[in-house]
Amino acid sequence: MIRVQREDFDIGAEIAQLTRGRTDIGAIVTFTGTVRDQHGAVTEMTLEHYPAMTETELARIEAEAHARWPLQASLIVHRYGALKPGDNIVLVVTASEHRDSAFEASRFLMDYLKTSAPFWKRERGPDGSRWVEAEAKDQTARVRWNWRKHAAE
After folding, report:
1. If you placed Cys at 73, which of 17, 95, 97, 132 could pair as Cys (CB 3.0 to 4.6 Å)?
2. How many domains is the chain partitioned into structurally?
3. pTM of the model
């Protein structure tokens, strides 16, 4: 399940809804990303996207996670619009019978969201504004999933 929304989300309520009535889940891994104020340099982050393209891509990458790992359930909630430091940006929840699958799938989804998801982020602060790019370490993390996919084939 994926959602792209302007509104904030309640982490506990999202997990409860995703797992309600499920007794086949033995591990739930969550990741929540928030707007970080880097030493007073960020007063606002604005996330933009093209709805149809973003939702299609998030659904595709979520389906790929389900193809790679035995997941019972998953959820991606990503916000857009103007956000302040401390605000939630993204929630990824992966649920599986065993923790390894849930952890790996969560890392896979987050590495994709950080580097390749069709969102454009602009930070504003006292010194003006700038577009946010994925860092080299994020790109390195993303590459390992391509390697693992091809190594398994």
Report:
1. 95
2. 1
3. 0.88
